[in-house]
Amino acid sequence: MEKMVVACPKCQKQLRVPSEGDLGITCPHCRFEWEIIRSQGANVQAHINNIEEIPGLKDIPLDQLQKVFEKIKNTKVNVMVVGGTGVGKSSTINGLFENAGVESSAKVGESGRPETMEVKSYSLNNVVIWDTPGLGDSTEQDARHIQKITKLLNDKDEDGHPLIDVALLVVDGSSRDFGSVYKLIKDVIAPNLNQNGDASRLLIAINKIDKIKHHSYWDTVNNCPTEKLQLHINDLVTTVQDRIEADTGFRPEIITYCAGESDNGEMLQAPYNLGKLLSFLLDRVPSKKRIAFSNDINKDKKNFKSNDEKENYSAKVEKTIYESFKEVVVDVLGSAAKIAGEVLKEVVTSPQVRKVLKDLGVAALKSFFTKGK
Predict the structure, then answer these.
(1) What angle do CA 26, 154, 252 make, to 5 degrees?
(2) For the chain, which domains are there?
(3) Which phi and psi angles does 254 have, rounded to 5°?
(4) Which of 299, 181, 308 is nearest to 248 (CA)?
(5) Which GO MF term does the entry hold, naming one (predicted)?
(6) Strand blocks (E) in the chain
(7) Which of 31, 42, 248, 364 could be 190's S-S partner, Cβ–Cβ 3.0 to 4.6 Å?
(8) 97 pairs with which residues across the strands?
(9) How far is CA 182 from CA 177, 178, 243, in A?
């Protein structure tokens, strides 16, 4: 059987494992145990052509530049997704990421009851998605699941940093009962994030905003909330923020969106505000890891077509990624590179580097947000 190389999510040591099938793995270096579900194979290989012609890099040995791209390829971004049963975690993951394969029977927008009962990891090129068990089935099961989530939030990588880079809490906006959400944040997420001194790793996302009121409140032509519905959405966000702040002292930023819904291949509800969710999720990833994160962004334009347009999320994402690339260049090459200011700007915008970024799957992100079909 053919082998592929994966990095341990905890210590980042590279391991050779079978390239097919679901795997249960124990890292021989740190003894960390995890699963790989539908792993995506080896990372994209970067090819650098005519590198000596790039302004500011002509005196830097090719092997040094290759280190930059190797650093990007080998960087892992760990995203934990938390939420109750049926809130749309799987459809959200599949909408954001390329070939995530989370609950393969529930691709973006497909109906289907999530059945995640254990913490599972889905290794893509650079992103490792930790899909946690849904809460709300029973008190006994919730206690076990909370214990697993708590452990994951407190796991450290080989450098002593929190293993989880960002925690995405998905909430069902159409639900009338947010009690389990408040309990999860107050008793589990907030204490553990605060213990590690970084509550900013949490992003709360309210899904299914098209179902908050009667369907007539949704603008089906423009695929967005009507003004009346937006008022209800704003009230909901304020209510949730007020309660969380009262419980924890932390007032979170909340994104409202629709992951989308389909039935037997027929689109019933197109995604809305996934582009915004992607942008805010990327903001919470450590800055030097953002360019690696972008390697697994879903390439389907339709997923990011409709957004609230309060901000140019396309430009924001693109700028964030290139800023991340600049950080990696300086971090890897250090003083040997002697690159700064406008010279570095020329480097990251040069055709050769853009070609490499394209090979890595992180260029031309603007096209994901275009209004065309």
Answers:
(1) 135
(2) 75-311 (3.40.50.300)
(3) -125, 130
(4) 181
(5) GTP binding
(6) 3-7, 14-18, 23-26, 33-36, 77-83, 120-123, 127-131, 166-172, 202-207, 218-219, 224-225, 254-256, 261-263, 266-269
(7) 248
(8) 297
(9) 10, 6, 8
Residue length, the chain? 373
- Helix, coil or strand: residue 305: coil
Distance CA 78, CA 100 (A): 13
Tokens coding 298: 């879903």
- Distance (Å, whole) CA 140 – CA 159: 35
From the list 89, 180, 185, 86, the residue with the least C-alpha distance to 132 is: 89
DSSP assigned state of 15? E
What parts of the chain have a pLDDT lower than 70?
Answer: 1-2, 8-12, 19-23, 32-65, 100-117, 134-137, 194-197, 335-373
Tell me if residue 187 falls in helix, strand or coil.
Answer: helix
- Token output for 246: 């009262």
Q: How many CB atoms lie within 10 A of CB 18?
A: 13
DSSP helix/strand/coil, 186? helix
* Distant-in-sequence, close-in-space partners of 308: CB < 8 Å, separation ≥ 6: 224, 273, 276
Sequence-distant (6+) residues with CB within 8 A of 16 are 3, 4, 5
Looking at residue 225, its amino acid is: P
CA pair distance 47, 42, nearest whole angstrom:
15
pLDDT tens, residue by residue, 39-62: 333 332 233 333 444 445 555 555
- Mind listing the pLDDT tens digit for each residue in 74-84? 899 999 999 88
Provide the token pair at 276: 């915004």
CB 229 within 8 A of CB 217: yes
Closest CA to 117 of 155, 148, 78, 152: 148
Per 3-state DSSP, what percentage of the chain is helix, strand, and coil (rounded to 5)?
Answer: 45, 20, 40
